[in-house]
Write a structure and sequence with these properties.
CATH superfamily: Aldolase class I
Distance between the termini: 33 Å
CATH topology: TIM Barrel
Number of helices: 12
CATH architecture: Alpha-Beta Barrel
Radius of gyration: 19 Å
Bound molecules: iron/sulfur cluster
Largest sheet: 8 strands, mixed
Shape: globular
Structural class: alpha/beta
Length: 326
Amino acid sequence: MALAAHTAVSDFDAMLRQHGQGPLRRARTTTLQVNVGLRCDLACHHCHVEAGPKRSEALGPALAERVLRVLEHNPGLDTLDLTGGAPEMNPHFRELVRGARALGRRVMDRCNLTILFREGQEGTAAFLAEQGVDVVASLPCYTKDNVEAQRGRHTFDRSIEGLRWLNRLGIGAGDGGPSLDLVYNPVGAFLPGPQSELEADYRRELGEHFGIRFDRLLTITNMPIKRFAHDLERRGEREAYQALLVNHFNPATVDALMCRNTLSVAWDGRLYDCDFNQALGLRLHGPETLFELDDVEQLAELPIHTASHCFGCTAGSGSSCGGALA
Ligand code: SF4
Ligand code: SF4
């Protein structure tokens, strides 16, 4: 009996049905999230795409051109969200930013901050400011020990310097220019605390100690996949963490799940409902690549590819690339 009950709630679609909510379907697609490649200057413990300095997968010129054409022909796509790896390391990064901004679209850069100090990236911060790019910067804590436990030695000081640099350029300066959002994720196998409380802590600590300003703090739950899953396994915590996610299922998060309005594009052009599905190779139930998609309206109502990792998005206050959901 106990086993049967456990099986039922461990199944994401069954959990949705139990709350009268399934099956999950796509709504209108408004954000094109492009993972431009897996190369990164860091190799963080929690990284769900297992990015690192030795990865070579990268979006090429044909796909860069295709991304801009799809944006041009789909006015409903209001945002180009660039992620990676460190997106700035891709040789087509600036072309994508310039092209999308010239089309009047919002561009977001998911920036790890340390990249701004790497050789060859000296002009990147100024370029982001000049193009009016909204920066989403990962900073898993406001203390040095916690940040470096997750992201490696010397990452904290460079992250702080990076934030101050962006502020000086008017990003996150609170004067109506481009925004600067920070991303928090727990340093272990637990759920993030309330987003508004953490945001107040970050604002106080970063403001008082470093004079840093930012717009919003986004809390993101660690997904039990890839590098974080291997870490959990090594510590014997994988099952307990999955149970934590399942037991904190919150039906109020479902309507706002990011897979409903985001289309995730991989470095090779393949399409997914979200970046996590991309990391797991769970394809979109629709066209295989961006080269076969002309009109994003055709994606509305497609069933979303779900699996047990989806509990990572619906636990507690919920989690997405835009932070908490409920
Ligand atoms: S900075 Fe981001 S992309 Fe790079 S390894 Fe860390 S989590 Fe992955
Ligand atoms: S992992 Fe999250 S965003 Fe992706 S399909 Fe599942 S619920 Fe949606």
